[in-house]
Amino acid sequence: MDKISSEPRARPGRQPSTSHAELSHIALAMFVERGFEATTIDDIVTAAGIGRRTFFRYFASKNDLPWGEFDELIARMRAYLAAIPTELPLIEALKASVIEFNRFPPEEIPYHRQRMKLILTNPTLVAHSTLRYEEWRRVISDFVASRLGIASNRLEPQAMAWALLGVSISAYEQWLQHDDSDLTQLLEAAYDMLSTSFVAGRPA
């Protein structure tokens, strides 16, 4: 007798969704329609035409869904910083990296707006975001530490990582308040203002 799979069959007429982006998009639509708390993992896997085991290959929890391909983006950001010429001033290198990290194709922008509205306003996700922000800050502090030749847990790398996170979030808040705004332009303006607070690559 053939072994019966514990994975439910995909819904007729729909190809199973088996990527971070696809699952995240499906979940975001459901979160907007039903609310984050009211949407379960079972609801999401049914809509995606996959099983729970497949879901957990891509996301550790429902809280991670709005973050999409965050882990991949973090890895790219670290690689981007590593490849930046050493002669580029520290704050300019960080600015370029953050802008690249937050660059998305036009078709992804509506999803990204939904994603960030959830992350910045839903209490459950606000709490969960501290873990994700820590990963982001670690990339920044490690790079700053390598440029300054000091340990990443020293004041300078940590202060700059926190400062950059705050500036980035402020740009996002402005972006979400104005539908016709451009995220890249807001980030550039915010980082240009921040750069006046640093002298020779060290906090003033």
Automatic annotation (TrEMBL):
Gene3D superfamilies per record: Homeodomain-like, Tetracycline Repressor, domain 2
HTH tetR-type domain mapped to chain residues: 17-77
Compositionally biased region (Basic and acidic residues): 1-10
Record Pfam families: TetR_C_14 (PF17754), TetR_N (PF00440)
Region of interest (Disordered), ranges: 1-21
Highest rank taxon of the organism: Bacteria
DNA-binding annotation, residue ranges on this chain: 40-59
Signal peptide: none
Transmembrane residue ranges: none
Annotated keywords: DNA-binding, Transcription, Transcription regulation
UniProt-listed PANTHER family: HTH-TYPE TRANSCRIPTIONAL REGULATOR RUTR, MYCOFACTOCIN BIOSYNTHESIS TRANSCRIPTIONAL REGULATOR MFTR-RELATED
Protein's recorded name: Transcriptional regulatory protein TetR
